[in-house]
Design a protein that fits this description.
Blueprint: H1 23-53, H2 56-67, H3 69-97, H4 103-131
Length: about 130
C-alpha cells in the first residue's frame, strides 16, 4: 500500500482567492466582533460607575469625556454594537427554533440585521438628544 504508483489529486483547501464570502459569513464574523466590542465597551460603564462613586469631581470628569466628540462617537459605536449584537442574537434564536434556514431567508435576516441595527441606533440617539 505504501508503494502504490497511483497518486490521487487532493482538493485544495479553500482560501481567500477561491472562496467567495457570503453575507451570512460576514455577519457571523461581525457578530463576534461586536461581542468583543461589547466586552471592552462595558469598561465604559465601569468607569462611569467609578466616577459616580468617587464624588462630584470624578463624575464631572467622566461626564466631560462622554460629552466630548470622541466620547460621543465611542458611545454611538457602543450603542450600535449593542443593538447589532442583540438583533444577531435574535436571528440565532430563530435558527435555534429551526426556522429561516433557506438561502433567501438567511440573506433577508442578515439584511434586516444590518438595516435594523442602523435604524434603531439612530432612533435611540435621536430620542436621547430630544429628551436631553
Amino acid at each position: 500500500m505504501a508503494d502504490s504508483p497511483v497518486r490521487t489529486q487532493r482538493p485544495l483547501s479553500p482560501h481567500l482567492q477561491i472562496f467567495t464570502p457570503y453575507l451570512t459569513m460576514v455577519m457571523s464574523i461581525l457578530h463576534r466582533i461586536t461581542g468583543g466590542a461589547l466586552y471592552v465597551g462595558t469598561l465604559l460603564l465601569v468607569v462611569w460607575l467609578i466616577g459616580a462613586a468617587s464624588g462630584p469631581a470624578g463624575y464631572a470628569r467622566v461626564q466631560w469625556f462622554m460629552g466630548s466628540i470622541i466620547g460621543q462617537l465611542i458611545l454611538f459605536g457602543y450603542t450600535w454594537a449593542l443593538i447589532h449584537h442583540l438583533i444577531g442574537g435574535v436571528r440565532h434564536l430563530v435558527w435555534d427554533v429551526g426556522l429561516g434556514f433557506g438561502p433567501e431567508a438567511r440573506e433577508n435576516m442578515a439584511r434586516l440585521n444590518i438595516i435594523g441595527s442602523i435604524v434603531l441606533t439612530i432612533l435611540i440617539w435621536v430620542v436621547a438628544l430630544i429628551v436631553r
